[in-house]
Amino acid sequence: MGPSWSTHLFLVVLPLTFALASLVLFTLGGRDEEIPRGSPQNPQVDVDGAPNTQPPGVA
Amino acid sequence: MNVHTTLVLVVTAYMAALLWLGWWAARLTRSPEEFFLAGRSLGAWVTAVSSTAASESGWVVLGAVGMAYTQGVSALWFAPGCLLGYLVNLYLVAPALRRQSAQCGSLTLPDWLAHRFPSHGKSLRVASVLVILLCLGGYVAAQLTATGKAMEAILGLPYRTGILLGGLVIVAYTFAGGFRAVSWTDFFQGLIMVFALVSMPLMAVAAVGGYSPLLAQLAAQDPQAVSPTGGRSGWALMSFLVGMLGIGLGYPGQPHVLTRYMAAASPRAIRQSQLIAMLWGILVFYGAGFLGLAGRILMPQLATTGDPEQLFPLLAKTMLPPWLAGIMLAAILAAIMSTVSSQLLVAASATSHDFTEQVLGAARTGPASVLAGRLAVLILGLAALWVALGEVRVVFWFVLFAWSGLGAAFGPVVLASVLGWNLTGKGALATILTGFFATVAWKATGLSQTLVYELPPAFALATAAGWMFSHWERRRAAPRQGLP
Q1: Which B-chain residues 209-228 have CB contacts (< 8 A) with chain A?
Q2: Which of A6, A7, A9 shows the shortest C-beta gap to B215?
Q3: B81 with B396: CB under 8 angstroms?
């Protein structure tokens, strides 16, 4: 008995389904919003008082 | 130049690259946020590849390949199990965890839980730290023994010298560069892993004539080897599928993976990392599976006279020129070392930040906190090395249960939190403790072997405990607050 259609589904179609699902979920994901420097999420200074050198983030 | 010298040169260059990344990261590390979370600066590629490399240890390049060799096509059920875990982690957990942890300034997973459930903050920190240390302590030691075995097999180094060499390199770059070093070395190691687990299977499948000839030859060997059920039926099939797919339940509870999402520079980085990480997972898991299947045709003698888990290094040495075989063999070390350094840093941050600073109240300035983190890495790393050098084989028991213990303890509480379920502080504490102790009890009573893999039942028990305690706490609070 050779490989059946279920073997090909399992080995080929299933991984492609995961790739497709990932792409669909990525496409349906929300928009990114900017967080201005100085907001609580992106403070002017680090926790030890050093200047925050990170670029403004997005939320 | 002979084969051995070439292998030594490639592995030496690999180790040197790790140490250089550690030195580079150390120059950028001044604050606790830098040491424990790389200043929340990880881009999409580093977030994606480092998180996946951290979650997949030597198991994927040795164990999964050997399992596909031994069991045939049905062994590949681990891949959808893991990829479902990736989907949940990347699309549900990562965006919410990154946002919430940035808002409350959390540096660690226990830190985030304490902010999320302030009424039981201290208890949650203590429980989380204990679970992390119990699970990850043994895990790190066991992975270090795997490093020794890999060095022995690849370079012919004595077992203990291999443990010392690999362990000291890991401790050195984690000590120096903290989270940034661990993330970038994991990124580098994740690229080596995906290169190895794409190119090796392609060459192996081509060597047996391609996809269809591979399946035809497997079917000629054993018709069950090409069946997705492997000839199982009834309860045996159900138990097998629950166990294989249940592996994915562990992903939302792994602190060394979750912290990568917390360290992402932006939600845009998280979004882009979703696609990259999923692609990495599909390539690596199915690559490992197809390598095992092709190896069954190329090296049939391993089934009776050898160890199928050594298929990857044996095929690399047989099929490839020495320099390329060296890169492939470095992938084995990469898989092991990327997990060890991530777990070591999480254990150290739980000890120095959560326990000594937040629970015991040791007040530290920024530089002192970084120094305490480095000392915790050094002490825990050397302790794990000491255990590994003692050849305490029982530590492998920890590897088997650490994934489940962390997954069942933290998975339900993380999912409930990011999905906005109405979990209370008592409920969160009950979830963590029930998940951990249910895993231990299930394993200790042998139900893992006789009934089903411990993670799905422990996860379900932890979720039920969280729901019951939350319900009970809300009912007790309602009359006091004059609520109906």
Answers
A1: 215-216, 218-219, 223, 226-228
A2: A7
A3: no
For the residues B387-416, what does the mean pLDDT come to? 80
Structure tokens at B456: 């799905």
Half-sphere exposure of B419 (CA within 13 A, CB side): 14
The minimal CB distance from A58 to the residues B216, B266, B369 is found for: B266
3 state SS of B310: helix
Helix (H, G, I), strand (E, B) or coil at B101: helix
Q: What is the DSSP letter of B59?
A: I
Task: Name the residue facing B33 among A10, A32, A47 (closest C-beta).
Answer: A47
**Helices first, then strands: H and E counts in chain A:** 2, 0
Cα distance between residue B330 and residue B54, in whole Å: 16
Phi and psi at residue A58, to the nearest 5°: -130, 155
* Cβ–Cβ below 8 Å for A58 and B267: yes
Please identify among residues 363-392 of chain B the ones whose CB lies closer than 8 Å to any CB of chain A: 365-367, 369
Backbone angles phi, psi at A33, to 5 degrees: -110, 145
Round to whole Å and give the CA distance between B141 and B153.
19
The answer, for A7 touching chain B at a CB cutoff of 8 Å, is yes
The answer to whether the beta carbons of residues B125 and B110 sit under 8 Å apart is yes
Residue B105 contacts A, CB cutoff 8 Å: yes
| 3 state SS of A42 | strand
The answer to whether the Cβ–Cβ distance between A18 and B366 falls below 8 Å is: no
pLDDT at position A34 is 45
Using CA coordinates, name the residue in chain B closest to A21: B87
B50, B276 Cβ separation under 8 angstroms: no
CB pairs under 8 A between A and B: 104
pLDDT at B90 over 80: yes
Buried b / exposed e over B291-320, threshold 16 CB at 10 Å, is: bbbbbbbbbeebeeeeebbbbbbbbbbeeb
Structure confidence at residue B395 (pLDDT): 45
A45 to chain B, any CB pair closer than 8 A? The answer is no
User: With contact defined as beta carbons under 8 Å apart, do B244 and B78 qualify?
Assistant: yes
Complex ipTM: 0.87
Residue B105, Ramachandran bin (φ over 0: left; ψ between -120 and 50: alpha; else beta):
left
Report the candidate in B220, B206, B157 with the shortest Cα–Cα distance to residue B315: B206
Question: How far does B31 lie from chain A, in Å, by closest CA?
Answer: 6
| CB–CB contact B30 A48 (8 Å) | yes
Three-class secondary structure of residue B304 per DSSP: helix
What sections of B208-254 are H helices per DSSP?
Answer: 211-221, 234-246
Tell me what pLDDT residue A51 has: 46
pLDDT > 90 in chain B, percent: 53
Q: What is the DSSP letter of A55?
A: P
Q: Do A58 and B366 touch (CB under 8 A)?
A: no
pTM of the model: 0.88
User: Which one of B36, B90, B91, B353 would you mutate to disrupt binding with A, by most A Cβ within 10 Å of its Cβ?
Assistant: B91
